[in-house]
């Protein structure tokens, strides 16, 4: 993300969150979810400006909030609250208020989900630039490890109702839930969402490649 687009994105985020919190008919929770997903993006803006020691601290903070970006995609199930869909054999209802809510939810999920997830490449590139990663397999391991940890965080966020902030308010209890409560269904969920995230990351790479081709 270039310097040029930082402030427009910041302003757009504030407008979206204020509207969702105070003026939307539903989905008020998206204000908080978008703020949490935006945090890793804001952190990534400052990577190149800091020393190696501060970069490590920022990187840890980035990793803490990064899962909030792919977590947004689980909010699609809230579409069931809308009246526009009445089942497989029913026609859609032309309720413009609900279609507007649909649009706002989709914008929040897709824009901040994808922008937030794209910061994994910003972080990776910064690690390479600072010679923290030297080989190709280390880059793939970094992507895979972050994606797995993110899937674990999504599981505990969705099913155990934990947020990133709980690592500060209830650190011991939160770490126990994250790393010591396991089940077969949890493993399957993590496997599923790791695959989903890798596909979304591949999509981000593909879009970037298409942009590069268009400029040739």
TrEMBL record:
Pfam families: DUF1361. The keyword Transmembrane helix applies. The chain crosses the membrane at residues 7-23, 29-47, 54-73, 99-120, 140-159, 187-207. The keyword Membrane applies. Keywords: Membrane, Transmembrane, Transmembrane helix. This is DUF1361 domain-containing protein. It comes from Enterococcus plantarum.
